[in-house]
Design brief:
The structure is a single chain. It contains 5 helices and 3 strands. It has 121 residues and is α+β, with helices and mostly antiparallel strands. It has a 3-stranded antiparallel β-sheet, sandwiched between helices. The two termini are 15 Å apart. It has one domain.
Length: 121
């Protein structure tokens, strides 16, 4: 079943906060201690990021989707790879992180980016 792209709305913010923080708890131990805090992303911080231009979109099974994650979270990288994602090289990673995410340099150093490659045919 194919999905549809949908830009998240302000009404989706509480759900986004819950998803981000739930995922972050699963990454605990992979997220460097100097980047970890609880909650990982307070709602006010998420709203600030959205106000600064960060957008959240739903899944489109036929389109290009990027995932940024912690380099130490090999279990997450393996999960994404099993579902049609591939790791990008270091230069592309830095370019994509600079284009689509607002993160500190330290977080960029310890992150990877994966891109979804839809199946041909």
């Amino acid at each position: 079943m194919k999905g549809a792209v949908r830009r998240c709305t302000p009404e989706d913010t509480p759900a986004i906060v819950e998803i981000v923080n739930d995922a972050a708890r699963k990454y605990r131990g992979a997220i460097p201690d100097d980047r970890w805090h609880e909650p990982y992303m307070p709602e006010a911080e998420l709203r600030s990021e959205i106000a600064a231009g960060v957008e959240f979109w739903g899944w489109d099974d036929g389109g290009r989707l990027l995932v940024g994650t912690w380099a130490a979270a090999q279990w997450a990288i393996d999960f994404y790879r099993r579902h049609g994602f591939r790791l990008v090289g270091p230069e592309e990673k830095d370019r994509l992180l600079s284009t689509y995410w607002r993160i500190p340099d330290r977080q960029r150093e310890v992150s990877v980016v994966l891109v979804h490659e839809p199946h041909a045919g």
